[in-house]
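Field reference: sequence -> structure
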Amino acid sequence: MIECMIQGPFGAISIRTNQQGISAIHFIKEEAALIAPTSALHNEAARQLTRYFDGSLQRFSLPLAPAGTAFQQAVWQALQQIPFGETRSYQQIANAIGNPKAVRAVGMANSRNPVAIVIPCHRVIGANGHLTGYAGGLEKKAWLLQHEQQPGQTRC
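Structure field:
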């Protein structure tokens, strides 16, 4: 596993890769030294994330390789189908994967998404329209959702 760290709008972001693709993108909570991209894939991931944050990219095109169960993989695939600027409920994701009774399991798979932003787990909200948990913190989730409502506008 190879890692680089780039600056995001709310601190450092870690990008990890393996031979198959991007294995993880995480928000770094503590102060961290940035680590320059060391591969073409890191460079491309950093470029696409930068474009996403500046509002000029709405759909990522990166090879992804998150480790997870077959169920988690199904949920993460469904998350990637949520269009930029839109949200879905956990129930809608459960329905999309053909398992309407798996709402809680969808929530657990969503919370274990190792590739933040690119696999847009931030686009999943409660059935009542309220923001629910987000591994990066609800303030980041709110920022990302607001950012997607105003593409092309840089905010920090």
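Note: The beta strands are 2-8, 11-17, 22-27, 88-89, 124-125.
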